[in-house]
Amino acid sequence: MAAASHAAPSSSGGQRSLGRLAWPIGYVVVILFLFFLYFSILPSLVKPVSAPVLAWLPVATINECLMWAIMALGLNVVVGYAGLLDLGYVAFWALGGYTAGWLMAFPFNWTWDFHLFSPVKSTLPGTHINFWLVCIVAGILCAILGLIIGAPTLRLRGDYLALVTLGFGEVITQFFRNSGDIAGFNLANGDPGISPIDPIGTGPLGAAGIAPPLLTNSAAGNVWKILVLGLLVGICIFVSLRIREGRLGRAWLALREDELAASMMGVPLVRVKLLAYAVGAFFGGIGGVANASAITTAVSPSGFDFGKSVLVLLMVVLGGMGNVWGVTIGAFLLSWLNSNGLKQIGVQIDAIAGTNLEASLPRYNYVILGLLLVLMMLFRREGLIPESRTKALMQMPSRTEAESLGADSLEAEAETDAVEHSDAGADAKIAASAAAMAGSGAAAGAGTSSGARREDES
Amino acid sequence: MSAQAQDSAQDSVAAQGARSREAGKEVILELKDLSVSYGNIAAVQNLSMTVHQGEIVTLIGSNGAGKSTTLRTISGLLRPKSGDVVFEGSKINGIPGHEVVKLGICQSPEGRKIFQRMTVSENLDLGAFTRKDTAKIAEDRENVLELFPRLRERINQKAGTMSGGEQQMLAVARALLGNPRLLLLDEPSMGLAPVLVDVIFETIEKIRTQGVTVLLVEQNALAALEIADYAYVLESGRLNTQGEASKLLDDPSVTAAYLGGH
């Protein structure tokens, strides 16, 4: 892929290569800072200083944010790069999680003891495979599922595509819900799901006593998870950026802009679309494994509801479709609000007004996120950190500057169609349907009632 | 193979009656009895036409005559109901659009369809999407920017922020970067001021001198006939008239029907 990116002739080649180094360095600094903040800085500070930081930004929340960033970066490939609206992205998260359940957990059904570079005790029954290997396996499985989901949707566009992907997302969840008895075979333990899932091991670092040997959901384990998840996010960012600059990335952008024109340029639409699904799904699978192993330590169907698909889509849309950094920040912001931010805001309001919002505010998460999206669409449609292309047309510069050069005074009549029919509208449409979905998610997701109702049905 | 095509081309020439088309030039594209339909609606019926190497051939006719349908069939976006598209001696109907580009047929589509949110430079890169000969691409790029100096001025501008004329130039330039042997131009004059139409058409003539054969679809019949060697006139999906462009310009029936009494 890298070989195919014959860079466009550019006068600022030197600057660019410097720019290429800038982000990895900056990123490593940020992750290391976060790590040392929780590893040594905060514990050494007096409580009045460290307590508010830990209350607003607990380590577990940081890890959750990093995990969601993997998901958002994956969906960004499908929605942001290739312009294919996917409302069933949770399917890949689920399959990734269940892959972890199958390959790195205590047995729930079959007793097949197999250990492969696993950090857990070798006497433990069940299949226990190393976290990193499972990440790769889950990525590949999800990529295959991506192809399976992608293939029938190739001829669909816009709303129809969204509906089909939504259907697939629900099908996968229902599949796992009913997986306790598939023609008598217990594939994934149905509603209770699989738990516990092995934590990430630290190998030589653990053996040397530097890090805990197992990154469990403990104070010490959570701190070290920042490094592991940070590395995964870093890889996703790197891959996202590299692909976009390459031939495939250009094909995706062309596809997003104008399918017919892309085809006329020789872009093989079928292959390029399927690759978008596959790459996005690969990221989603890794996110699923990371979630199952490092965040929840369990998988069950109730965790993979439609609301999660919407949440990831919101991250992409709010952050800025197509912009890797925007999407990453969108993921951090929303997953923080979702996991801890709303609760803390509730606590603060309670302290001032004497209300009891600490418990209730987080339950209205989808209402609040939906509202946030509506506001964004009204005031900053292109997202927090927009992709430069989107920005250019969403905030159309008045052409007076160019016209003042006297270059185009003869052809003013042809202007309006170019601007009005621009594909900026297509992105706005994706954002708008995301807003609508968030609204419906709010109706169902404000309480836990929807989960309970579904259990009744099945 | 090409000799065979030439034979059959000459057969069809004979069948269609006398025409004083320059002999000895190879046939690059031939449509044989082509019919295309959208569902039950026939858009093109029994159209036969030939394009010779190095010519500018124009396909004119009023709105809905089937001109764009014909072009889309040639470029593989539509499949013919019956009949064949023969390019350089081999049948290409049924080959998908993105493969046709690799054969050397590039299209500047109706309504330009440039990639609005990409820069001019990125648009040109996409024009060369199927090619891997980096050195030749750079050379072609330079050549295209010579043809359209305006594009060089705007090379890093977002294409959607350019004027209609510039966008049309970009659409043609982008098609040229596919290194076509046959360039299909669909209504390049649409929505442009007369002065710009002249610029575009002058450029088309220059492109021909560089060895690219051009099939030009136009509603602006006058401008098209002025630069074309040979013309086909479509009416309601059927071939109405054909002949040397200069002769059609003098033909009163054509003038009355398509040139608005010019």
Automatic annotation (TrEMBL), chain A:
Record bears the keyword Cell membrane: yes
Compartment(s): Cell membrane
Molecular function GO labels: branched-chain amino acid transmembrane transporter activity
Stretches for region Disordered: 404-423
Keywords recorded for this protein, A-Z: Cell membrane, Membrane, Transmembrane, Transmembrane helix
The keyword Cell membrane is annotated on this UniProt entry: yes
TM annotation in the entry: 21-41, 53-75, 87-109, 129-151, 223-243, 274-299, 311-337
Membrane topology, as annotated: Multi-pass membrane protein
Coiled coil regions in record: none
Pfam family, any one: BPD_transp_2
GO cellular component labels: plasma membrane
Protein name: Branched-chain amino acid transport system permease protein
Organism whose genome encodes this protein: Microlunatus flavus
From TrEMBL, chain B:
Gene Ontology molecular function, alphabetical: ATP binding; ATP hydrolysis activity; branched-chain amino acid transmembrane transporter activity
One of the GO biological process terms: L-amino acid transport
Keyword annotations of the record: Amino-acid transport, ATP-binding, Nucleotide-binding, Transport
SMART domains assigned: AAA (SM00382)
InterPro entries: AAA+_ATPase (IPR003593), ABC_branched_ATPase_LivF/BraG (IPR030660), ABC_transporter-like_ATP-bd (IPR003439), ABC_transporter-like_CS (IPR017871), BCAA_Transport_ATP-bd_LivF (IPR052156), P-loop_NTPase (IPR027417)
CDD domains in UniProt: ABC_TM1139_LivF_branched
Record-given protein name: Branched-chain amino acid transport system ATP-binding protein
Source organism of the structure: Microlunatus flavus
Lineage: Bacteria, Bacillati, Actinomycetota, Actinomycetes, Propionibacteriales
